[in-house]
Specification:
The protein has 18 helices and 13 strands. With 449 residues, the protein is an alpha/beta fold. Helix 9 (224-234) links the parallel strand 5 and strand 6 (238-243). It starts with a helix and ends with a helix. The structure holds pyridoxal-5'-phosphate.
Length: 449
């Protein structure tokens, strides 16, 4: 492959090394199957023509690869969590025909998210689990299945707007439930919940994690377990939208204060919802865990069919959950988003030094600086992740914005923060194996700008 990659570069084929690798691998696959079928093929001009044809697709893609040098680990605009290699391989394997809705033992029809449901239960300690398109969908489904045509209670302290016009009061209404607002912006009491639950028409009580802002000053709310107990007494399910969803909550750097799925269940919340592509570190998905009868109620709701996951996403999710099932330490080491969060200055500083030195040697003005990374995606919005990066100044006579644009327009595009008269490359969110590629892209952009 390395020889072919060099040959592709020599021939000046369109696209970068990764695009070449994909085109070469696909063409080689075809060549192998031709050979198996008894049609001999050679690495001749026909081979290269096919590689070239394939390159007309990938390099022209608008949704293409990027290098995230922003230091924001879960960058929504760059696709949130980077997948683990296991998740990528699983998705690829499921992309053709896949054992999706069939039980291979009996050959009979099976449930498509059986494995994911079992893993969710295993990892969180809940009885059952369900996966849908994203957390927004999970929440809409929960409210619709439990309170459609009825009422849903939500405190004014948790009337969150997540972004992209996703606002809790509207979510409740769009799910077909009547919203009962309780408390004030800064305070809500247990008695407010008790008073709302006097209404026999309440289908569920909703709690929403304030994932993108904090409440300070004269504030107050009941504890989760107090609300849970009250709901239990009144026979009304309590749904907790956690958002980022730390599974067990063992001191994830930068996310120590994020409520965990395990803690929410322990406090007595009935259904807990969270995203697959935030702190779980997997593909986009909305995950719901809780007692079997409630999860079944959601599963059998008509909406579930409209919100279901594609086979490749289910495969990537199963792989990611399997990594978590191996234990917390394993997940921290193998799930890229978690690994990036845990990176310390001791690991980032030498990489930043090496990058700055190489850039300077190539005539690009650069120096190491302290960086403040973020978890991103609304999780722990105030917390900085101390890191190291490289401040790159634009070439003489080039505006910073033009330089930043040149970086973004590279293949792959480099996305970084503009700050202090330059572009800051935070190495936290760059795979160490790609430091050299980043370096080459920066040098190329400086030449182009
Ligand atoms: C991120 C978030 C959502 C939306 O989740 P998606 O997976 O993006 O749909 C909903 N609620 C909370 C509290 C969140 O943090």
């Amino acid at each position: 492959m390395n020889e072919l990659l060099d040959a592709a570069a020599e021939r000046g084929l369109a696209g970068g090394r990764e695009a070449h690798r994909a085109a070469l691998a696909a063409t080689l696959d075809r060549l192998r199957s031709d050979c198996r079928a008894g049609t001999a093929r050679e690495l001749d001009e026909g081979f290269w023509q096919e590689v070239d044809d394939r390159l007309q697709v990938l390099p022209a893609m608008r949704l293409r690869e990027a290098l995230n040098a922003t230091g924001v680990v879960l960058h929504t605009n760059l696709g949130r969590a980077p997948w683990a290699p296991e998740a990528i391989a699983a998705a690829q394997a499921a992309s053709g025909a896949a054992v999706l809705e069939v039980d291979p033992q009996s050959g009979r029809r099976g449930r498509r998210e059986r494995a994911v449901s079992a893993l969710l239960a295993e990892i969180t300690g809940a009885e059952a689990g369900l996966a849908v398109n994203n957390n927004a969908a999970a929440l809409t489904l929960a409210v619709a299945a439990l309170a459609r045509g009825r009422s849903c209670v939500l405190a004014r302290t948790e009337m969150v707007e997540i972004g992209g016009a996703y606002r809790m009061p509207e979510v409740v209404r769009s799910a077909g439930a009547r919203l009962i607002e309780i408390g004030t912006t800064n305070r809500v009491h247990l008695r407010d919940y008790a008073a709302a639950l006097e209404d026999p028409d309440v289908g569920c009580v909703l709690r929403v994690h304030r994932s993108n802002f904090e409440l300070h000053g004269f504030t107050g709310e009941p504890e989760a377990h107090e609300i849970a107990q009250l709901c239990r007494e009144r026979g009304v399910p309590l749904v907790y939208d956690l958002g980022s969803g730390v599974l067990r909550g063992a001191g994830l750097p930068g996310a120590e204060e994020e409520p965990s799925v395990a803690a929410a269940l322990q406090a007595g919340c009935d259904l807990v919802t969270f995203s697959g592509d935030k702190l779980l570190g997997g593909p986009q998905a909305g995950l719901i865990v809780g007692p079997k009868p409630l999860v079944e109620k959601l599963r059998s709701d008509m909406l579930t069919r409209s919100l279901r996951l594609d086979k490749t996403l289910l495969a990537a999710l199963e792989a990611t959950l399997s990594l978590h099932a191996l234990g917390e330490e394993h997940a921290l080491a193998r799930v890229p988003a978690l690994r990036q969060l845990a990176l310390g200055v001791d690991e980032l500083a030498p990489r930043a030094e090496a990058l700055a030195t190489a850039l300077v040697a190539a005539g690009v003005s650069a120096r190491v600086i302290e960086t403040a990374g973020r978890v991103g995606s609304g999780a722990a919005p105030i917390r900085d992740l101390e890191g190291r990066g490289v401040l790159v100044e634009p070439p003489a006579g080039v505006e910073i914005d033009a330089f930043a644009r040149a970086l973004r327009m590279g293949r792959p595009g480099v996305f970084a923060r503009v700050q202090d008269g330059g572009v800051v490359l935070d190495l936290r969110t760059i795979d160490p194996q790609r430091d050299a590629e980043l370096q080459a892209l920066v040098i190329a952009a400086a030449k182009r700008a």
